[in-house]
Amino acid sequence: MNENLFASFMIPVMLGVPITTLIIMFPTMLFPTPNRLINNRMIAIQQWLTKLTSKQLMITHSPKGQAWSLMLISLFLFIASTNLLGMLPHSFTPTTQLSMNLGMAIPLWAGTVFIGFRNKTKMSLAHLLPLGTPTFLIPMLVMIETTSLFIQPLALAVRLTANITAGHLLLHLIGSATLALMNISLFTALITFIILTLLIILEFAVALIQAYVFTLLVSLYLQDNT
Amino acid sequence: MPQLDTSTWLLTILSMIFTLFALLQLKISKHFYSPSPKPVDTKLQKQQTPWNHTWTKIYLPLS
Question: Any stretches that span the bilayer, and where are they (chain A) (predicted)?
Fold first, then answer.
């Protein structure tokens, strides 16, 4: 039962060759490159959505932080498209892999921290102590703030992994429950089916929201440090 | 949990880095947002200075 439940999260292997690379690169095929002066509708819609998202995301940053807009927008599009493609039945979602999320979270977080350290050393160190703390609490609070700083990349990665994995697992379980209940009592199976439909809608929302949250937090860490 | 099997981690991370940093960013960087059209003033011609009135020999390339 355990092996069967987590089988969809194993790296897909075809004839002994891991095809993860192709699966990870697939969402980029859904974003055609605008090569002409006037592009087709799909590219126009994507450009419009990108402009909307980037304005929403980058307007609170200083010019130094806005240099990260390409990075953050492509991060958002990558996570959102990967999560949404994972909603197709029997597909493999790369964002369920802790390796990939750690690989995204740690370099981006480290980049923001090092930028802050290099350009504004005093201000980034000052972030370790909230304003107005009593003097005798300072050493303990600095330790707590340092811990919370170092836990940021881990939290980013594990949050994305856990949310998407849990959603997919729940969908899988409730789906197989509906199927099993169909032979026992049709009414309960109907109720379970309605729960499944609601869960699917939730999962679509979660797919987009998680992408947004990831990018938002990275941009927040960036704001602190630019 | 199959996500904790570290044998495939290098492959996943490398393919993600390539996709995210190379492929996607190259595509998104080609998005061109043209600036909104502005009216251009046509009467900004500068007055010709008096010594430009006649074309003299020294302006010819072979002299």
Answer: 6-31, 67-86, 98-117, 124-144, 150-171, 178-198, 204-222
Is residue A2 situated within a structural domain? no
ipTM for the whole complex: 0.76
| pLDDT tens sequence across A69-92 | 888 899 889 999 999 898 888 888
> How many domains would you assign to chain B?
1
Is A167 part of any domain?
yes
Q: Is residue A113 part of a domain?
A: yes
Domain around A47? 7-225
Structure confidence by residue, pLDDT tens digits, B16-63: 888 888 899 999 999 988 888 888 777 766 766 666 666 666 666 665
Whether chain A has a CB inside 8 Å of the CB on B20: the answer is yes
Contact between chains at B20 and A33 (C-beta distance less than 8 A): no
Q: What is the model's pTM?
A: 0.84
What is the number of structural domains in chain A?
A: 1
* Domain presence at residue B18: yes
- Chain B residue numbers with beta carbons less than 8 Å from the beta carbon of A33 are 26-27, 30
- Residues of chain A where predicted confidence (pLDDT) is lower than 70: 1-3, 225-226
Domain residue limits at B26: 6-30
What DSSP string runs through A11-71?
PPEETTEE-HHHHHHGGGGGS----SSS--HHHHHHHHHHHHHHHHHHTTS-HHHHTTHHH
